[in-house]
Amino acid sequence: MNRFLSCVLGSALLAPAAFAAGPATSVAPTTPAVTTVPADPAAGIREVEAAVRAWAAAWSARDVARYLAAYASDFTPPRGQDRKAWEADRRERIEEKAAISVEIDSLVISLKGQAATASFQQTYSADKLREKSRKTLELQRVEGRWLIRKEGAGG
Prior knowledge:
By secondary structure, this protein is of the alpha+beta class. Helix content is about 35%, strand content about 30%. The longest helix has 20 residues.
């Protein structure tokens, strides 16, 4: 029974044959199996929410490096803009502000495999400007991180 509890508590998955086997005297290291079992959807949604909130926090902190790191390498800038030109524009617009606040409300996330969509009400405040708008981010899981591939405002 202790072997069973330690496997359950250690979150290890055993094949049914492991339960039938007698006590092991030594355990040889093995390479973890790659599974095709999808991740827990609730965990995926929490990861996407954390990524979206980290993006907004970086923007609010005027941390341009962290803000730009939230975008995938294949991010599609709006209005057909070149990626380098878009980054330069974002850097200038963020750094020129004395203060920025980005609040996210009514966040709705849909998850489909390694892709996600996050829609929310964004309240953006900077210096004397304050805007509320709907925003949608399309994200992709890349090397364990959720990154923004496309964004849209309005609607």
